[in-house]
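hey so i finaly got around to running the thing on Rpn family recombination-promoting nuclease/putative transposase from Cohnella hashimotonis. pasting the sequence first so u can double check i didnt mess up the copy paste, my clipboard has been acting weird all day
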Amino acid sequence: MAPHDEAFKKLLQTFFKEFIQLFFPELDEWIDYFHTRLLMQELLVDIVGSEARQLDLLMETKLKGQDAYILFHLEPQSYRDPKFAERMFIYFSRLFEKYRKAHKLIVPIAIFTGDGMKNEPDTLSMALPWHEIFRFRML
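ok and heres what it spat out for the 3d tokens, dont ask me to read them lol
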């Protein structure tokens, strides 16, 4: 991993609250930051593609006024990847599979840092011509 990637992840971890407040103020109102902690690096295996990847950053905290944990998966992306939304969905599904009993919400956040990445897709969907089957969206 490049040194700047590690530094960026450390910044996100250290300034997680400020990051959420700045970019997601409507979400900030619901988070109890007192309970925030970094989870150990998750290794997620794509069983079909037989590929293993580590999540960049996984933070856990609580929702205000509730006894419910919430996971934030923060994934910085500095280069174009036509399968990025698909990869984020796979990460999400593995996290859901592992943490669904203990966590009420899992919030996937993609952070596009590369030049010219303003219009990257934030959605993966599957549909028939007459019926939407599913829609996955990242923040």
